[in-house]
Amino acid sequence: MAFRIPDLIIKKRNGHELTKEEIEYFIKSVCESNNNSVIQESQLGAMLMAIFFKGLNFNESYYITDSMMKSGARFSFKKHRNLVVDKHSTGGVGDKISLPLAPALAACGLKIPMISGRGLGFTGGTLDKLESIPGFKVSCSKEKIEGLIDEVGCCIVGQTLELNPADRILYATRDITGTVDCIPLIAGSIVSKKAIEDLDALVLDVKVGRAAFMNKLEQAELLADYMIQISRKLGLKAGVFLTRHDNPLGFAIGNQIEIIETVECLHGNISSDLEELVTSYGGYLLQRVDRCETMKEGAQIVLEKLKNGEALVKFRQMLIGQGVSREIADQLCKRNYEAVFAKNAVYVSTIRAQLSGNVKSIHALELGLLCSKLGAGRSKAGDDIFYEVGMKLIKQVGDKVEKNEPWIEVYHNSEHFDSQFAHKIMNSIEIVDYAVTSESSIIKIIDYA
């Protein structure tokens, strides 16, 4: 049965439920470009905005996820049964957890076919970070991905024309239409990407806080419920971690600077917040595929792989497998960063503390937005990203700081930094005169069982 896109937009705009057939038609129209049913860009934006304001119930969200999943090729990893796992996050400022986690799990003998995304809103994208490495290719054929899983054990790739094309198009359009933080669309995007991977276990990281798309715990729990229910109906065993995200993760915000932090992690130099999340997610997945008795035991195994160099070996193999020359991969893994990243920011601005005390908080959202405006992110699909732009935290939550002591370095190309950015960055740190202890990032774990 044929439908008209304007009729579907009006129906959703007026708050009515779309049928399975209508949603399938909408997703098919998104993917097609050579027939009369093709959807115009303005219509796609209008539908996303209608969904943003009127929402999708569980059935609609399941239908859109299922349709996106079926819009392209899917994997079958039967020969690796009970080894295939993955992790996905709703995104955050400084969130580079996937980068050390995938090779660490591969070093444990697991298989990680990670389909990731680009930056959305104020968050950095895993693919953008990886593309700051000269030669790294995020676009791989299905056959190439299967080969990497056989030979290396992990890969981090983007959606291609054959892999979930519907989500690739919707993902890019949400970023430029103000419809990023829509729970049914977030759930559909994340679960559809993972459902095509033929997984044995999945960790879904839902961030909560002022630097997350979900500002309130109730929102995060609703998103978790959507994803758990959709995953169950698709036969996907998923667990959701609700995690705090008010402060930046790790010490780096940007693209190439987060790759540098990743390599440091793979040498065992890992900040406490990153260590907790990387090892907890890894421990959960190891337990779910019966590689250890408890999540805590699994976390210790992952930490050992980060510290003994085995995860670094897998990272190097992944780089080479995805197009990076052996010379560049070796230089990066040996921490010869200047030999890898030829382009440096024009300016390095140091921001100093205005008073002495202890760091209580660092406003991750403010820093993420400013970093994006300086060139590390994009305001519309296709915008260039300046990989060299970023921020390095010299102080983190809980640290002591003296007046006039540097607490952050900003790498940028702006001649107007002092007048437009410096003051806002200066005000994004909260310093108090009492001791501060950092709390666990993990609020709760919601299991699929």
UniProtKB/TrEMBL annotation:
| Enzyme Commission identifier(s) | 2.4.2.4
Q: Which GO terms describe its molecular function?
A: 1,4-alpha-oligoglucan phosphorylase activity; thymidine phosphorylase activity
Annotated keywords: Glycosyltransferase, Transferase
Per the record, the pathway is: Pyrimidine metabolism; dTMP biosynthesis via salvage pathway; dTMP from thymine: step 1/2
- Name the NCBIfam families on file: PRK05820.1, Y_phosphoryl
Q: What does this protein do?
A: Catalyzes the reversible phosphorolysis of thymidine. The produced molecules are then utilized as carbon and energy sources or in the rescue of pyrimidine bases for nucleotide synthesis.
**What name does UniProt use for this protein?**
Thymidine phosphorylase
What organism does the UniProt record list as the source? Brachionus plicatilis (Marine rotifer)
The major lineage groups are:
Eukaryota, Metazoa, Spiralia, Gnathifera, Rotifera
